[in-house]
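Cross-posting from the chemistry board since nobody answered there.

I work mostly on the small-molecule side, so proteins are not my area. We synthesized zinc ion and want a rough idea of how it might sit in this target. Sequence and SMILES are below. Is it possible to get a predicted 3D structure of the two together?
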Amino acid sequence: MRIRIIRNAIRCNHCGDIIESTPVHDFRTCSCGCVSVDGGHEYLRRCFRYSPVDFTDLSEVEPAGDGDLENGDDDHRAKNFMASSAYVLSS
Ligand SMILES: [Zn+2]
């Protein structure tokens, strides 16, 4: 499934920091160091020290269906997304 990442952000459940990755390779860590985000709008990567419940996912994504290519940039993004194995989306 193709998705488009609108916002790549999480909130640390320990220190309460909200960290957001905007450009790709923009690696952000909260002030207590428990959780990190990376990937910008290309993919969603989460790192955590203890468990996935260390953070609350604030990311916004929307489906980008095959019939929904209103500009060429979508195809580029989808390809980068598919090439990434780091995708983790907390539900
Ligand atoms: Zn923290």
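Reply from a structural biologist on the board:
Welcome over. Reading the output above for you: Residues 2 and 64 are 5 Å apart (CA to CA). The longest helix spans residues 73-83. Happy to explain the token format if needed.
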